[in-house]
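pasting for the record
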Amino acid sequence: MAHARAAGPPRATSRRRWWHLRQRWGMVGLFEVNQEHEFYHLTCMIKEGMHAAIQTTMETSGQDTPAAVEFLVKQNHEGFEMQTFAASVFAKLRRSLDITSDEYMNSFCSEDCYLQFVSNSKSKADFFITNDKRFFLKTQSKREVRFLLSNLQAYMDHLEKYPHSLLVRFLGVHRIVIPHQMKYFIVMQSVFYPDDRIDIRYDIKGCEVGRWTDPDTGGKPILKVLKDNNFKGQCMALGQEVSWFSNQVRVDAAFLQGMRVLDYSLLLAHQPLHTDELEGKHSFANLVMRTTKRQRALQHEPGGTQNCRNSLSITAGSCPTAKMQSTWWMDQIIATLWAS
């Protein structure tokens, strides 16, 4: 019996390892982190730790708490310790985005499993998404987290000056301390939430070397992010938004350059139009109204929805190379740049 018990963990480890390899070889996309998944126990700890961290933020809301980015909250749990950096700073940012603590809690701490996002990116980081696909969690190195925290005040000042900046919204920085192991991870607002109508995504860096992804999915439900060379021969008509968009890209890029950040991308997504949009009724007001209805459960106000402001409605008929009418969402310059 003792021998059987001792042999159990290696078999379980081997099974998880083979499961992981099959997933890596076979597909790129979203996978539920269930009990058979190699990261299931890690995500359970994250979920438990996030619940306590968010609860503490809710209980201390309105109190005089340190706002310094160096401020660290440590919370002990069975088998691990959850550490939260600059909690009040990130809570302020979430409030500015109309993300309530209850919404944040419901996304991270529901009974539903997290999802793992396996992409064709060269990044070695692990990506997880809350089950409602609203928030991303990304593992980071100590160096990357230190860089983010050292520039956090400048980042907050930039967002306050440019509330419709295309920069990704960082919503939290945490560290889980497990015996003989330490994991850093950041929380980001999902760029393409809600994504029920999005059928194609691009990661644009502005260069051509190595910037091609085979779009063929082999009939599998694979989520592929295409790159610069995949976008060749296509164009977007931005209309009256072109001046704002071009200026905001320049401003955000200058901010990143000032911090000596080199690696960043512009994420684009293609979204087919509704019938009324195809008939020429796709005004900005209608777009705001439709998006508001879809997010009513999230209690977003029409004037405060970030995705509404950063959405660009185009008529592809005005572009010779386009083959259909569509809506392009241009939400954010994604900051894997912070890892550079």
